[in-house]
Amino acid sequence: MPSIRILPDRVANQIAAGEVVERPAAVAKELLENSIDAGATQIEIEYRNGGKAYLRVEDNGKGMNPDEALLCLERHATSKIREADDLLLVTSFGFRGEALPSIASVSRFTLRSRAEGQEAGREIFLNGGKMIHNKDCGMPEGTRIEVAQLFNSVPARRKFLKTEATESAHICHLARLYALAHPQISFTLLESGRTIFRSPSCSDLNDRVHEIFGRGLAEDMEPVEAEGEGYHLYGLLAKPGKGRSTRKEMLFFVNRRPVESKTLAYSLIEAYNTYVPKGRYPPVVLFLEIDPAAVDVNVHPAKRELRFREEGKVRGFVIRTVLDRLRELSGDGRIQGITLEDDSVEKEFVLPRLDPSALPAPSANRSNLDSNASLISISDVVSTGESPLTKASPPPNEKTEADEQVRKIVGFRDDTGVAWRFLGRVQGDLVLFSTDAGVVAFHCRAAYERVRLEQVESALASGKSTESQILLIPEPIELDGVEAGILESALPELSNQGFAIEEFGRNFYRVEACPVWIEPGESISFLRDFLDLARRSGGSAVGSVAQEEIARLAVVRGRAAGDDFADGEVICLAEQLLRCHNPLTCPQGRPTYVEHPWREWKKHFGRGL
Ligand code: ADP
Ligand code: MG
Question: Kind of pairing, strands 42-48 and 186-191?
């Protein structure tokens, strides 16, 4: 009969090592966190062969005296908590007191450390958890830990390690995360003596991103900050339209700890819904400060995946903050688009004279057009909070408060409007404009969809019934039972939007009128699409879902693809686009226009223009 026995510490440590340090990067993480906890201002990390052969982390933190150095290698030795209740309040990285003994049990482990006021340092060398020596050594204040031949004594674990390149990539990623989280600490990362990055202490997060990820990423991001409801969210956010193909650059930190959080990732993806295309991800470096008692960091020994106690509240706060900032940034984009960069730019604008009859006939916002429709003046370009598309533009010469605001922002000096000048059509939906800031390549279809989406959305949100047109010949539509049910529940909303639908038999309906923004011949297929979408989203075709779907369909159905835009229409479209809440991207998050600034042209030619 097998007898029960208590495992020797060495075996227990080796088992724990399997959880705490499944790969070299996990070792690096534990050592780095200890260095940060020890108050280091300088940390150097070096590794060889993906960290399998050798890994060193050295710091100038508070160090350990000889007793502490010995004690820290005992299982459950920690200076960071005393009671289990302290777990709720931990702000230090470590707290389990497991890391060092676990790592030491599966490697050749050398610890050197010297505390303040100590005459000498202490060097302890262990092999596979067995003490080989413990002696004085000369070294400056701080701690240096070397881990060689990781898992050599545990072939089963070594087998699971990936290639050197993969393991190196993990170490680099990890070092970058910690460097981002602690810009005040100077970090160096070396691979076999070669510098991967070296970043002195930086006061600014953007500088840090620049140093460790390069300029491209730093330039695609803008700062964000908001405080409230017990949260503080800050960091850098992708500019609208700057998506990446993977989530690798969506970086989250909670209380300065790099974390993986589905809550945060989904909130971001949701907030960027119309700001980056589907299937692309915004690069972000976001820090959330939150009461440590409101998060559970103890879900996994590797402590990456984190849970919030109030998921919904965090999600709401993050989405609101990010959306507010994105709207602001889209606004900025709009104003940049008309910034006077160069005083020498002529301020007389020659615009093609347009035959007013060439201007577009469709849509309810024809009222926005006056004889100056071809000139997009600065006053038109300013958002006033309410959707501009539903409101008539101010007469061209009237100075509005918004005008003044923009004047301040762009340092505008005279009374001429800043304009986009129509240059011509390039190909298909692509049209060129010149502005004070550069040349704009404008995508008509993308712009059209954005304008239309905001029009329909604002009509829906206004709650007012939309104008309706009576069909000359009412159209019959036959539905199955489920669809009929959905239709019934959506009828009030649909009739509010200008549909008149009568039931004339079981599951038979007749469409007698439709909103003015639908081509009469399209009303049946619109309804079918609508019911289809509603069915797929679980049959909830009421309230905001109905509104969103109507808006989306209206955009898709609005205009057949390949249908050309007349010149006058294009100009009108550009004008309307610049008054949208989010003029930079289409409803799918792809750009509506791209501006190539004059300074770039000058660079191309190597001289003034
Ligand atoms: P934990 O970090 O969970 O406390 P560790 O095994 O990682 O457990 O470390 C044990 C103890 O050793 C720490 O609590 C700390 O007191 C000490 N220690 C570890 N690394 C360092 C370091 N780089 N500088 C100073 N003290 C350290
Ligand atoms: Mg630790």
Answer: parallel
List the Cα angle 121/81/251 in 5-degree steps.
Answer: 90
The verdict on the CB of residue 142 being under 6 Å from ligand 1 is no
Helices 481-496 and 543-557: crossing angle in degrees, nearest 10, is 90
Of the pLDDT bands very low, low, confident and very high (cuts 50, 70, 90), residue 118 is very high
Ligand 1 in reach of 94 Cβ (< 6 A): yes
Amino acid at 463: G
> In a mutational test of the pocket of ligand 1, which residue from 73, 98, 100, 126 has the highest number of ligand atoms less than 8 Å from its CB?
100
Q: Which residues contact 221 (CB under 8 A, 6 or more apart)?
A: 206, 209, 236, 237, 238, 239, 242, 283, 284, 285
Q: Using a 6 Å cutoff on CB, does residue 236 contact ligand 1?
A: no
State pLDDT tens for residues 572-596. Answer: 888 888 888 888 888 878 889 888 8
Q: What CA–CA distance (Å, rounded) separates 9 from 549?
A: 62
Question: Which strand (E) or helix (H) includes residue 484?
Answer: helix 481-496
Q: Which residue has the tokens 């309040």?
A: 89
Alpha carbon of 118 to ligand 1 centroid (Å): 18
User: For residues 229-251, b (16+ Cβ closer than 10 Å) or e, as one string?
Assistant: eebebbbbbbbbbbbbeeeebbb
DSSP string across 31-98: HHHHHHHTT-SEEEEEEEGGGTSEEEEEE-S----HHHHHHTTSTT--SS-SSGGGGGG--SS--SS-
Q: How many CA atoms lie within 13 A of 223 on its CB side?
A: 8
Distance 289 CA to ligand 2 centre (A): 21
Query: Of 91, 97, 24, whose CA–CA distance to 297 is shortest?
Result: 91
CA separation for the pair 75, 92 (Å, rounded): 18
Atom of ligand 1 nearest to the CA of 97: 8
**Ligand 1: residue whose CA is nearest its atom 18:** 34
Question: Ligand 1, closest atom to CA 57?
Answer: 23
For residue 108, the model assigns a pLDDT of 95
Per-residue pLDDT tens digits for 233-270? 999 999 988 888 888 889 999 998 888 888 999 999 98
Joined tokens for residue 499: 């549909």
pLDDT in tens, 77-100: 666 665 666 555 555 565 567 789
Strands 221-228 and 194-199: unpaired
pLDDT of residue 341 exceeding 70, the answer is no
